[in-house]
Write a structure and sequence with these properties.
The chain has one domain (4-115). It is built from 5 helices and no strands. The protein is mainly alpha-helical. Helix content is 74%, strand content 0%. Keywords: Membrane, Transmembrane, Transmembrane helix. This is Methylamine utilisation protein MauE domain-containing protein.
């Protein structure tokens, strides 16, 4: 049986994915300008977060889902670095929080990797 904290991680990604559909404008305004079709990308990333969050809950899909989460978080680093590029891109979030989000991404990658071989 998987540890309880695996389900905490899964719930976090499922919740984040659902929020892409409830508050899409919040996500669209932090998208780098060089990426096309922000609304579609927000919805696709929301679907990816939900599918991967569900996938880690099952033995048959856990390894693939954890590596999917790691890849997704790597891609999301583009947004984090973009938000550090200027005041408008920061969406009003203090710079110190934006800086802390970068190592947090790497922690989340490690956390996902931890479950790849359960």
């Amino acid at each position: 049986m998987a540890p309880w904290h695996l389900y905490v991680m899964a719930g976090m990604y499922i919740f984040a994915g659902v929020m892409h559909f409830i508050k899409p404008k919040m996500y669209m305004r932090i998208m780098p300008m060089y990426l096309p079709n922000h609304r579609l990308l927000v919805y696709l990333s929301g679907i990816a977060e939900m599918v991967l969050g569900i996938g880690v809950c099952f033995d048959a899909t856990r390894k693939l889902s954890t590596f999917g989460i790691i890849l997704m978080l790597g891609v999301f680093l583009l947004v984090h670095f973009y938000m550090l590029s200027g005041e408008k891109a920061s969406a009003g979030i203090p710079k110190w929080i934006l800086i802390l989000r970068v190592p947090l991404q790497f922690f989340l990658m490690y956390w996902a990797y931890y479950y790849a071989y359960l």
